[in-house]
């Protein structure tokens, strides 16, 4: 149970904080806002600075509150602005990367030549890749992609499970994706449906 002294001390504390808050909040807010240009951030900075000041007043006697409050406001505003600077740099970096990636996609698409797509080079890469696969993997892939058979039909023809067919086709696609990495959009055009 609180004693009369504790209650009196609490009331004094609350009144003193309210007095400090009402006396300095508006000044603190406008000072912070003049630098951060954001109402919500300025409100947070002003409130945090006043709370920090109040906590300091509870432990030490301070005759002139103004300079201490101003230093606290300055430091909190600087922290906020530095954080904003880091965020902006990160966004700019992401934007630069996005623009570069977009530029690459545009130039790749502009340089896409249908005659080159159906060239012997791509055909040779596909044939060599399929030759490097096991006979069963190659057969499952050819039946799926070049004879348009369903996985069930391929499973019956090869005498394996449908899951086995899916495994062999996935294995083939992975090998082709690696070997056709320079022609990746074509890989999707030819082999995925």
Task: Explain what you see.
The radius of gyration is 35 Å and the shape is elongated. Helix 7 packs across helix 8. The termini are far apart. The chain has helices spanning 4-36, 39-59, 65-110, 114-117, 120-132, 135-145, 151-158, 162-179, 184-191. It is 84% helix and 0% strand. The chain contains 9 helices and no strands.
How would you concisely characterize the structure shown here?
It contains 9 helices and no strands. The chain is mainly α.
Keywords:
single chain, 193 residues, mainly alpha, elongated, disordered N terminus
Helix content: over 70%
For the record, give the distance between the C-alpha atoms at the N and C termini, rounded to a whole number.
Answer: 76 Å
Strand content: under 5%
Parts with pLDDT < 50 across at least 5 consecutive residues: 1-14
What would you report as the Rg, rounded to the nearest angstrom?
A: 35 Å
Layout of helices and strands:
Layout: H1 4-36, H2 39-59, H3 65-110, H4 114-117, H5 120-132, H6 135-145, H7 151-158, H8 162-179, H9 184-191
């Amino acid at each position: 149970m609180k004693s009369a002294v504790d209650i009196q001390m609490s009331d004094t504390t609350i009144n003193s904080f309210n007095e400090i808050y009402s006396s300095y909040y508006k000044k603190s807010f406008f000072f912070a806002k003049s630098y951060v240009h954001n109402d919500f951030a300025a409100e947070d900075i002003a409130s945090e600075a006043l709370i920090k000041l109040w906590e300091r007043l509870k432990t030490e006697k301070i005759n002139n509150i103004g300079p201490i409050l101003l230093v606290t406001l300055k430091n909190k505003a600087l922290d906020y602005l530095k954080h904003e600077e880091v965020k902006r740099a990160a966004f700019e970096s992401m934007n630069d990367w996005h623009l570069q990636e977009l530029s690459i996609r545009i130039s790749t698409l502009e340089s896409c030549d249908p005659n080159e797509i159906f060239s012997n080079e791509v055909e040779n890469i596909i044939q060599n890749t399929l030759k490097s696969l096991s006979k069963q993997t190659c057969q499952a892939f050819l039946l799926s992609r070049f004879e348009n058979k369903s996985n069930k039909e391929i499973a019956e023809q090869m005498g394996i499970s449908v899951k086995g067919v899916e495994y062999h086709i996935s294995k083939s696609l992975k090998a082709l994706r690696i070997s056709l990495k320079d022609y990746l959009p074509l890989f999707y055009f030819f082999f995925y449906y």
